[in-house]
Design the sequence.
């Protein structure tokens, strides 16, 4: 019982030695330079949406990875951390993609809206294959219901 | 007399099985010690990932689904497009003083009608004051009259956007320059935080205490700048109609505004919580509460602080720059 803590302390010292001598200064300057690049990039490509979004997200992911890898010590952690992070990331992604069809594709649905005689919109549904939904039938049903 | 082992040692002993199960060929030194506190903090951060991804995801979904005519350079957000299609506006960038000012006021009053207070309120928006709902001829006539009166004005056709564009002063009130500086400030605080932990691990608690103080102060500066930004947006400035019908950028003026305040507000609350936690561990450190064998609380707060920094890097990019 007396030996185990000593062994752990040796490991802890090694771990601390590595962590406390990580290249924090270099990482900091890297983050600063990337922030300046990001700032200039956003000014230069502000009118080119695709270039803007791809470039800026790329810079942001690199910066976020640097913070996680060095400052949050992911570099020095075991794989157990990913057992928590990966499922959380998957659930979060599911949340986003599950909402996409209902909300993000709404403009497509807007184009398919029809006005009835009183000027009300009817049948605000997403048409997966344009022209495949029986709009005339839906309008008749709507009028019958109202 | 045997001294009780330090809490960190007990935590390490509890996880010795995990440390020993490292694959052959990997040195234990390269694997961080697993303590219950660290597991709890990472679990908490996992929930935070879901929370912020929920917010960011909702933002992406709402932005993607925003109709292409939601924002215009001349009218308040979500004005029905059929009512304004084909209209023109005049943007008044500067207005003369004395007699020229009075003359310009009179010209604008003739153009928009209404009460004198309405004209005053409109001209309060200079250099982005907008006279809208004009035909092309009426807009050109108004521009000539204003220029003759010593004002600087420009005719603008209607432009529509699905979301406010960065650097577009007629639809987007956010100050990217100020926030870029604030991002720099937060990155600096991440450096001082990691140096604080490093100093304490190295057996230099005095140096670590100073770094903790620096992190607390820099974090407080970040929050202060954000409060200043909120004040300017909500009270301090009068914005053109393309940003807000009321002239102030508040959560209820548009979907963009509510998304902005929700995301940056929750992040600001997290930073505030971090600053308070940092201040508490600074006080403990000041009383000699941390050492080379007892540094785990600093490590946990540091993990939280870096996570908040990481989230801001993403938020700054997608809310301000894109």
Sequence:
């Amino acid at each position: 019982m007396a030996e185990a803590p000593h062994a752990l302390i040796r490991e802890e010292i090694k771990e601390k030695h590595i962590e406390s001598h990580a290249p924090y200064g270099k990482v900091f300057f890297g983050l600063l330079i990337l922030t300046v690049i990001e700032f200039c990039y956003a000014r230069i490509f502000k009118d080119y949406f695709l270039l803007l979004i791809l470039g800026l997200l790329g810079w942001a992911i690199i910066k976020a990875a640097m913070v996680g890898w060095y400052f949050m010590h992911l570099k020095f952690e075991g794989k157990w951390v990913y057992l928590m992070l990966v499922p959380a990331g998957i659930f979060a992604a599911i949340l986003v993609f599950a909402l996409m069809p209902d909300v993000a594709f709404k403009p497509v649905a807007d184009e398919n809206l029809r006005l009835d005689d009183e000027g009300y919109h009817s049948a605000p549904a997403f048409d997966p294959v344009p022209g495949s939904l029986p709009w005339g039938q839906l309008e008749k049903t709507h009028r019958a219901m109202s | 007399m045997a001294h009780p082992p330090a809490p960190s040692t007990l935590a390490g002993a509890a996880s010795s099985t995990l440390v020993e199960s490292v694959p052959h060929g990997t040195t234990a030194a390269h694997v961080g010690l697993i303590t219950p506190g660290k597991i709890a903090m990472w679990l908490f951060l996992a929930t935070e990932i879901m929370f912020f991804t929920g917010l960011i995801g909702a933002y992406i979904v709402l932005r993607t689904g925003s109709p292409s005519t939601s924002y215009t350079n001349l009218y308040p957000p979500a004005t029905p497009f059929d009512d304004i299609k084909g209209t023109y506006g005049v943007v008044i960038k500067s207005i003369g003083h004395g007699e020229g000012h009075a003359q310009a006021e009179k010209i604008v009053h003739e153009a928009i009608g209404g009460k004198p207070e309405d004209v005053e309120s409109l001209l309060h928006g200079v250099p982005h004051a907008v006279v809208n709902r004009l035909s092309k001829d009426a807009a050109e006539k108004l521009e000539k009259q204003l220029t003759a009166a010593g004002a600087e004005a420009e005719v603008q056709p209607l432009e529509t956007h699905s979301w406010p564009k960065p650097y577009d002063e007629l639809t987007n009130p956010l100050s990217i320059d100020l926030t870029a500086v604030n991002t720099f400030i937060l990155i600096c605080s991440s450096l001082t935080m990691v140096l604080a932990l490093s100093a304490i691990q190295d057996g230099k608690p005095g140096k670590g205490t100073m770094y903790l103080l620096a992190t607390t102060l820099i974090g407080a500066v970040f929050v202060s700048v954000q409060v200043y930004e909120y004040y300017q947006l909500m009270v301090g400035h009068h914005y053109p109609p393309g940003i807000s019908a009321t002239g102030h950028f508040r959560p209820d003026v548009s979907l963009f505004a509510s998304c902005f305040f929700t995301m940056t507000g929750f992040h600001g609350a997290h930073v505030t919580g971090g600053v308070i936690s940092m201040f508490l561990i600074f006080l403990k450190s000041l009383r000699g509460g941390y050492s080379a064998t007892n540094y785990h609380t600093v490590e946990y707060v540091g993990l939280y602080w870096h996570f908040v920094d990481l989230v801001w890097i993403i938020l700054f990019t997608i809310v301000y720059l894109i």
Chain A touches chain B through 63 residues (CB under 8 Å). Residues 110-145 of chain A form one domain.
